[in-house]
Structures are given as structure tokens and as C-alpha cells.
Structures
1.
Amino acid sequence: MDKKKNYSVWFYAARVLPVFALTLTLVFYFLEAQTLLECVMVVALCLFLFIAIYWWWWIMLTSKDLFDLVTETNKKFTEVIKEVKAIKKEVTNVNNRERGK
């Protein structure tokens, strides 16, 4: 795992885990979970919530990365097209000079 990804994992963990812990605490408080089964059910539901939120963040970041990739690729293709046009123009000029001789 490179440094950027490692930083990203800790950065998002620092954002999401406190919210998850607070949500879990509030759910326990408001549902007045007392038995072990109730606690397990609340933990399972909060885990599903955490996975859904994490998945949503992952989709948003992946979409952003794909958009950036497409934008960068488009710029590079534009440069290549300009270079091909310039080469085509040079080849045409060389052919015209050779025909003139």
C-alpha cells in the first residue's frame, strides 16, 4: 500500500469511525438495548449502516478518479491529434517539394 492510499485510509477512518461510534451509542440509548440479543442486533444494523456509508464514499471517490482519468486522457488525445496534424502537414509539404523537383 503506497503512502497516498495509506493516508487516505486513515483520513477517512478518522472521519467515519467517530460518527459510527456516536451513532451506535445513540442507537443503544434510544432503543434502550438491554439484552445481549438486542445489543447484537443493534451492532449488526449499525455495521450495515457503516458499510453502506463506506460504500457510498468509495463510489464517490472512484467516480471522481475516473472522471479525472477521462479528463487527463482527453487532454493527451488532443495533444496527440495536434501532433499528428503537424506531422501530416510536414509530410504534405515534403511531398509537394519532391514533386516540384
2.
Amino acid sequence: MEERLNIYDRFNVTGRGMLYMVDFPEKIIIRLGDEMCDNKGHRFKVKGMDMGRKVPDIDGVDFIPLILWFENIDGVEIEEDTISIQTDYLKS
């Protein structure tokens, strides 16, 4: 099964590269080393992550985004507004 994560923002940090602020379903577990891909099939490996600050959602519901740092396996940056992950493991 595959889950789509929305990318809300991306920013470049000197010495780190591109970081992506995403939301994700609470039932998904993301681990360092997990591979994700965009709609074009480009692959990315999770190299680092951090929890962001609480952000007000457009519906007035606050959420805490996840900030992901990827290793670009195919040598390209993410060009889409979503990224997918295989959900082989879920929280119970």
C-alpha cells in the first residue's frame, strides 16, 4: 500500500541541502533510510527528520509538520507537491 504526503514548504539550508515540511497520517511510521518517490518516479532516501512547530491549518486546525531531509538517489530535487511512501509498517 502507498500513502501520499503533502509537501507544504521547502527550504535550502546551507550545509544541509533542501529540507521539506510535510504532513503525514499518524498511522505511518517514517524511519531513517526509508525510500520515497515523487509522481515522476524519482527516488529519495530519508536522511534526517525533525518535528516542526505547530502550524495553523487552512481549516483552523493546528498540526505539527514533519521536516524531512532527503538523499536524492536519482540526482534530482522533488518537483511535486506530494511524495509517496510504501506503508509496509503501520502503527497499531
3.
Amino acid sequence: MFGGGPSPLADPETLARAKELLLLGRSIDLVAEQIGFARADSFAWAFLREVGIRPGAWRTANGGVLRPRICGVFRSPPRRRRLHRPDDKPMPRYKR
């Protein structure tokens, strides 16, 4: 929205609270909700405008706690191709 008021991060106390929550390891979505933003990307842009760096990068640079994601962080090892010959050679790949 053009011509809107200042972002909620313009207040120094709100910015300090956002930084504190980021250092505690809260997700950017949760921090945005607790600070008063409707969406996490609008919070990230406001944080970038005020601080000069994205919230995740700021947390990493300042030694914040990084909690691993529940899904998608650890990958299983790649599967080995099946062996079909007695001499243990892998199956040939056919070009289409």
C-alpha cells in the first residue's frame, strides 16, 4: 500500500523485541505475528529496511540459536543402484 504509515518496527522497543525473539530461536513467522505484522515477508522487508539485513541473516551473524527444521533437514543417503548380475555390475542405463 502506497502512502501507508510507518512500519511497526519504527519503534525502537519493538525492534529490540524482534531482535530478542530472533536470538531466542523463534521462527520469522512467529516473530512477525508477535510483533504485529500480518505476514512474515512484510516483517522481513521492514526488518531489512530498518536494520539493513534480512532477519535470518541477522540471527546467524549475531550468534542466535538455530533450531533445525522438523522436515527436510536431514536427507537419507542416496540409494544404490540394484545389482542384477552375478558379477555385481550395476544395471545399464538406457537412453531414450
4.
Amino acid sequence: MYKKDNPHKPIEFSTRGELVDTRTAYEKIVTQHGDPLYALADIAFDEVRPIDLRLSALKDLVKYGHAQKKAVEISGPGGGAVELEVRSKLINQITESFEKLAAK
């Protein structure tokens, strides 16, 4: 978490009366216990573990390697449907351009 007035400075939190910023706390955890991503990978690919636990670990793990996909809705003029003819014309133009480049 970051402060609103300074988004580059992590919020400090208190543990046993001392102030620790989140980055320092994370580095301490990694030093003592190892990288959490490796722990998630161990859980995800351990065939002895229950499948629902493995699936949950995979869902968390994949977020670090792939951006989450979002649905995008496309509409035509006036909010109507997009005409397929427009797409096929564009595909034909692109194909012709590639063919001309390949012929050179």
C-alpha cells in the first residue's frame, strides 16, 4: 500500500512497537522463508496436494506472468453492430500489402 500524498513511499506499519515499511518487511520474509512465488509453484505442481488447493495456487501464480485479460466490447456507428464487410476489406488490404512486400 502507498500513501496518497506520496505514491512512491510505502505505508509504514507497526509490528511490536517498531515502524517497518512494507518493502523492508517483504525482504525480511523472503530472507527468512524464501520467495513466495516458489512456494506457490511448489504447491501448484505437487500432485499429492488436493486439486482445489493446486488450482488456487495456479490462479495466484499465473497473475505474476500474465496480465489479466479484460473483455472489450466493440460497437459500430451509433452503437450498432460492426459490419463484417469492414473487417474483410481490412484483411484483404493487409494481405495485399504483405504480398507486395514479399514480391520485392
